[in-house]
Structures are given as structure tokens and as C-alpha cells.
Amino acid sequence: MLYSGLIRKYRQYLPVAEASVITLNEGNTPLLPSIRLVEKFKLPIRLYYKLEGLNPTGSFKDRGMTYAVSKAHESGTRVVVCASTGNTSASAAAYATRGGMQAAVVIPQGKIAFGKLSQAMIHGAKVFQVKGNFDQALEVVKQVAANPKVTLVNSINPYRIEGQKTGAYEIVEALGEAPDYHFIPVGNAGNISAYWAGYQRYLEEGRCTKLPKMVGFQAAGSAPIVLGHPVEHPETVASAIRIGNPASWKMALAAEKESHGFIAAVTDAEILEAFRLVAQLDGYFCEPASAASIAGVLKAAEKGYFKKDELVVCTLTGHGLKDPDNAIKVSEPPFEVEPRAEAVLEKLNL
Ligand code: F0G
Question: Is the pTM of this model over 0.90?
């Protein structure tokens, strides 16, 4: 049967009137085994990447957005708003326009990757750049959403979390069981909470027989959950997770505790190194924030955290093409040569 998106696949979990289903056939993303990264670092584990960058707008946000925008449509509102570090705004813009609706997105000025800004713009969102950070933008949209004609589609909208649980469902279906560990970057903390809830639902329904340990990573300069207090001026190269006061803080702590996992910080240097390594060893280009989970795997492995053959899934939350500037910064620069074969051959050191 033709794949037609998450709402139709998981109809029993994501109920909505058929006339309001707004989908771009999101979900059904590949689970790719790591080969060379595991080899190079002699990791004792089986490591899989969940390639969320292969969703229609290039990030995991589409899983929750299809449902949140469909439910907004069903309820009769035609304007959706969100604050965003980039990916949520790209997704909201695409789904809104698909449903004949208007998106209004509030983003921190100069602090979102260019690819993401271009997505919100080309899909016709009304884009508001605030002189402030994500946390301030979120406060603004919460107030805007007090207007009954408007629906908030940040992850404090429970339909977003319901949709994002499908990431866990797909992993269990692909592996035939839950993994031993689920590693994931943490920003506003919706995704770690959604995955944990998704695994729990599948356990309750007998689709798996165990639960993974949830292991989350914040960037060291934006690590409120690790520090135990909000960060007023969050900073990190991983702009997607530059968040100082996560909305789903309590749910993330519950996921950490109940699953016997942990939430820790990785430095920008560690994030950029993992970002380069996954691209250069395993051939997959994710965005810097996504690589926080891989940086976390490397750090945990170094400390002897894993047992032999344990199964680890890393969510690679967004596509690298959204943020080419950082890719260019960490890579070998192009050679400037005359248009002659010898000039190329010379550099190849054959
Ligand atoms: N990775 C990427 C690529 C993201 O865009 C985000 C969040 C996260 C990880 C963290 O997920 O917030 O559920 O803990 N991006 C949001 C946005 C904040 O506005 O696009 P989270």
C-alpha cells in the first residue's frame, strides 16, 4: 500500500477528522547502522542512526507538526504560531501552507541557520525576528496564542508530542524490540519526552518487552537541565538547541529518572567533532545539534558506559544541508587550481 504519512499509519493514536488530515508523508525514516565510526573508535556496541533529517522539511519536527496542524484545522483555526530556533518554523510553515492556513513564526534574530530561515520564507510564513533569544520568543507566542483565532504549535501543544511518539514506534517496529539506549539532543526537551512516552506505550501494548535508557545531551553553553537552573544567555554553535529555559523540563527529568538514563552536557568542540566524524566516516550529514547525541555516545563509550553488543539508537534530528556554514568551517577547504588535470593529480598524492 502507498505510504501516506503518520496520521494514516498510526490512526488509532492520532485521531483527527479525515477532511482535516494535513500531511507531507512524513515519518517512515531509515534506521542506518554505523559502520566506520563504530570501527574507528572500537565501540563495543551496535549503533544505529534514526535519520530524521529525511523527513519532508528536513527534521523530526514534521512528526508532531502534521498532527498539531491537522488538529488546529479540525478545531477551525486557520493561523498557527510558533517560536523557533529554526526547524519548528520551517515545519509549521510547510504544513500550514499545505493545509491552506497561515503560519506566523517568531525567531531569534541572526541566530537561526540560513537554510531554516529560507524554508519558513519560501513556504509563505509571516516571519518575525525578535531581538532576543528563543526563550523570549516563546513567551511572545504564548501571549499571541491567547487569541482564539490562533493555535500555538510549539511542543507545549500536546498534539506535537503525540505525533513525535511515532519516532519510538518506528524504532521498535524496525528492530523488533526497544534498544538498550536511546541517545538524543535536548533543547526545549519535547523530543526526549515524546520518545520516552512512545516507548512506554509500545511496552504497555506488548510491542516490546523492555524500555531503553534515555540519554539526553545539551550543549555546554545552553545546559539548564544539567545545571539545574535556567540559563539567561544560552550560547552554542548548535543553534537548534540554544535554549535556556526548556518548556518540557519536568517531562525530560521524568524520562531521565524513570528510564535510569542521564542528561549531560557536551561542549561545542565535541559537537563539531562528532558532526564532522559522522559525515566523514559514516557518510551521513546531520546538523550540529543532532551530532550532540553522537558526541554523547563517544563520551559515554570512553567512560566504559556500554556493555558488549548493546544496542544504541541515536536520533539525528535534522539535516546538515540546513546549516552549511558550520560544515564548511569544520572541513578541509577546496584547493584553488588552474583548469589542468596535472594540478588535480598533484594534490591527490597518488
Ligand atoms: N535537534 C534539532 C535539529 C532541533 O531543531 C531541536 C529543536 C532539537 C534537536 C531539540 O529538540 O526541543 O524537542 O528538545 N528545535 C526547536 C525548534 C527548538 O524551534 O526548531 P527538543
Answer: yes
